[in-house]
Amino acid sequence: MSPELLGLIAWSTLDTLAMVGVATILATLIGLPLGVYLATSGEGELFAAPRVNWLLGLIVNATRSTPFIILVVAIVPFT
Predict the structure, then answer these.
(1) DSSP string covering 52-76
(2) pTM of structure
């Protein structure tokens, strides 16, 4: 391999690691408090707010299923 190609691979690897790091930090900062709140805000729980829990649960479940829906839509033309 040429040194130029190795340099491109190194920079691309660093870019990828930076993107993964930022995504991990953001997911932790947003997801951890949201998950704790969802776990403790059900009916009869510590912070009982069943309507808010239902709404946030709906949003979280819709967001979690988005990659699968995109995958299904992308696979249909290939079959």
Answers:
(1) HHHHHHHHHHHHHHHHHHHHHHHHH
(2) 0.69
* Residue 73: both structure tokens together: 């839509």
Please name the residues in contact with 34: beta carbons below 8 A apart, sequence gap of 6 or more. Answer: 56, 60
- 42 in Cβ contact with 48 (< 8 Å): yes
User: Using one digit for the tens of pLDDT, what is the confidence trace for 39-76?
Assistant: 999 888 888 999 999 999 999 999 999 999 999 889 88
Question: CA-CA distances (angstroms) from residue 76 to 13, 62, 65, 70, 79?
Answer: 32, 21, 17, 10, 6
